[in-house]
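Support case: user asked for a sample of complex input and structure output to validate their parser. Sending the pair below.
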Amino acid sequence: MLFEINLLTIIVMAALGGISTYLANQNIAVFHDGLRPLYSQYFSGAMDRRALFATSFALSFGLVIGFGIPTSIAGKIIIVHTILLGCDILGTLFSDSGNRKWIATAVGALFGILLLFGMQAITDIFSVLPIDFTGNLGNVGSLIIVSFSVFPAIAVGYQAGLAKGAIVLALTMIIKQFTALYGRFSFGTVQVALNADGMALLFGIVAMVFVAARYGKKSSEGTASAFAVFGKNIERIRKNIVVLSIAGGIVAIATTLLLIAEGPASLTLTAEGQYASAAMVALGRTLGFIPLVMTTAIISGLYSPAGTKAVHVPAILLINAGIMGLVGSFVIGALIMAIEILILGFIATAMDKFPGMKELGDNVRTAMSKVLDIALLVGGMLAANAIAPNIGFIWIIGLYFLNEISKKPIATMAIGPLGAISMGIIVNILHLIGLFPK
Amino acid sequence: MVNIVIGGQMDKQRLAKLVEEHGRGEVKVNIKGDIEAALDLKNGQAHFYLGACATGAGGALAMAIGIVGPESCLSVSIPGKVLSEDEIRKAVQDGKKAFGFVNTDAGRVVPILIDEMLK
């Protein structure tokens, strides 16, 4: 793993696990966007704590095991879902009345620490196996780095049609190629090299926002009037602004310490040290999540411990900025969270005025997940093939299609990481029985 | 004619296409924002609501749960679990109106849902 295990990181992971579990236990914030809407039933008494826990477990457990852990191991940074979905489960497990909240908080803190040591332990075990495949796991994310700048073109295509999408795709390619060829300058003795993927991504995101702001079907019904009945939910979230801001700060500082990353793409870019690109990707994802997180918050009265994910953006840029970077990351993260909560009420009306931006959110998330599905699948094939040149490709292709017919399918974007890791374990078993010489 | 509205939140164009492919010309599909789509279902302008997202429960169904009510809504697939054909058919028969699923499972669940909706 890329993080260090020291007193500071142990404290931060404990704090992250503790506060997120506390927030879930006290019904203040949960990370799973699909869990939030169910709280109206819980608050009205139609659903009891046990049913709430069962739902939370059902929604999140598969994601933690099938997506969070393999993606984290392959990427060397813990993907935030692993810890925060776990905290959703733990928080809803305990009763929200009386002193149980402190037990929940303690268990959550312990979970955070366990995850820190557990992830490192798994990586350590893998690296002492007879056939060391950990070096090849990096291939899983290799395509994300060179291909992720394509996602805005796809999002534009979804929103404004084939022609506009094709134009943005062509321009993205030209900009990437041009920057790769001519993106090196020297001012006297100072060498400046522009990152071709970063420049292409920057262009794509600007183009995408530009298209969305201009484009926008008239919304037929008023979001604002539909949301008027949820006014007291916004009040409820605002009452908890202090503890939520602290949570935002802790999420940010954990990101800066390379403990967690907000998504598979920014995780890979961060692991490769491409912080500017990682921050841009995180910003793009924030655009995608603003409508989702905020609308689910308004209808439920619960927020997310990581907010709209905007807290990750400055946090990524402050990696390696020393102690002031850490302090700054916490303060900016907390501030962003506070601002998000304060503008919640305006969002409903804003979405009425700019329906294109709401639609952009949907399209961004679709485009990103499509690109990730393919990039991680092919990356997983490359990694598995590097680990086991004879059987790597067929293992991943086989897994992909068998997963499609499974009654318990894992997320498509987890096939690559999970397939590559399992390939590594398989070759070690084959080695034991003499079928895979060193 | 059965009116089906596509609401939340990912892969909407693909969902609409799937619905039309399996609708035997007896369905009318509308793609809308999730809030508008949920309002359509509530106001009776749409008979059914479909939505997909990465989790089958969040973006896919959240607004329908909030605006129409959880008793009308069901996630027919989430990561790690897809309901069986019988369970999906029974849900439609039991009067569920809004369905969410993981976008990559759309090809598996939409044909069953539409077939049962048209019965």
